[in-house]
Amino acid sequence: MPEKPEPIPCPLCIGAGAELFFKEPARPYLRCHECSLIFVPSRFHLSSEEEKKRYGLHENNPDDPRYREFLNKLAVPLAARLPKGAKGIDFGSGPGPALSIMLSELGFSMKNFDPFYANDPEVLEETYDFLACSEAMEHFSDPKKEWELFMRMVKKGGFIGVMTDLLKEGADFPSWHYKKEPTHVCFYSQKTFQWLAERHELKLDFFGISVAIFQR
User: Fold this and answer.
1) Interatomic CA distance for residues 109 and 99, integer angstroms
2) Which of 20, 29, 87, 211 could hold 207 in an S-S bridge, CB 3.0 to 4.6 Å?
3) In Å, how far are 23, 30, 40, 179 from 44, measured between CA atoms?
4) Given this model, what pLDDT does residue 4 score?
């Protein structure tokens, strides 16, 4: 009898209860029973070189009014919670740090980090009043590590603002546009973010189908 394959631990909660959720020719998707994260196993991830090439195809111009309107879905509710002059970091800022620029224009002191475009490890050693993470969490190959970093960087009482498309309960996953991007390897739902909030004793508010703001 063939041996059963070793279970793949969830990259967010490290639970061993992940099971196949959906499979397509290019890659499988597993779902964790503990935190409800849907993820692509690491052996199916793109290489760093391939990943950066994909990002080079994105058009994220900070001068584009439509892109600014898109980012305002996170910027507006996050800014409304921040004290004047608060210090923040745009984590996953990309080649044109549009969100960082927008928050700077509102009077906040901003720094940027991106593993490809603003890879300055020193900014990760500082602490911040808030952290903004727009359209980046779905790219994390090690979301547990990144989230623990967020917890270290954000002060008690501070905010973590996240924008990523959340999978609705009962949604048609096979046709979901968000999974079609090969650099997207982790997919979250409100249940997953509620698990994070409970695990780290955070207050959590949702705004629409793609924005969540956590408070430490």
Assistant:
1) 12
2) 211
3) 12, 12, 7, 13
4) 54
d(CA 205, CA 207): 7
Angle between helices 98-105 and 65-79 (to 10 degrees): 60
Give the pair of three-digit tokens for residue 158: 């501070």
Instruction: Supply 189's token pair.
Output: 């739902």
Tell me what pLDDT residue 16 has: 85
The single-letter DSSP state of residue 98 is: H
pLDDT beneath 70: ranges in the chain: 1-6, 58-59
SS3 187: strand
CA distance 168 to 177: 13
Cα atoms in the Cβ-side hemisphere of radius 13 Å centred on 82:
29
Assigned CATH for 50-184+191-215: 3.40.50.150
Q: Using DSSP bridges, classify how beta strands 109-113 and 154-163 pair: parallel, antiparallel or unpaired.
A: unpaired
DSSP code, position 83: P
Q: In what order do the strands lie in the sheet with 186-187?
A: 19-23, 28-31, 38-39, 186-187
CA atoms within 13 A on the CB side of 115: 11
Beta bridge partners of 118: 114
Residues 6+ apart with CB under 8 A from 138: 164, 165, 178, 184, 185, 186, 187, 188
Q: Which two tokens stand for residue 127?
A: 């602490």
Beta bridge partners of 89: 111, 131
Query: Which stretch of DSSP H or E encloses residue 190?
Result: helix 190-199
Q: How far apart are the first and last CA of the chain?
A: 50
